[in-house]
Give the backbone structure.
Amino acid sequence: REPCGEQRGDERQCCWAGRDGGERVECWHPREQFGVVMTRAFSTLAEFIERAAHLCAPSGILAAMKGAYPEDELAHLPEAFELRRVVRLNVPHLDAERHLVLMGHRR
């Protein structure tokens, strides 16, 4: 395995891009982009976009599972992406808020 040499901030983090899995999302560069890239309990929306946008096709969707409505996070989306929709989810036997946030490349 070879380190991809990803540079994040002032520190160089070595993330491994190997065939056996375990790659960090920002280091994985498949041949084709995806129509949907989904996450659950990963990070803020802005960080998800920063790390995973390269995986999303131009007409694709970044989908993030969130708990409470992420009002503050939605106010800080990167310029290249826009909110498409927030869907309130009803999970049986769960007394808590859940939302699915759908974002795409700005049109």
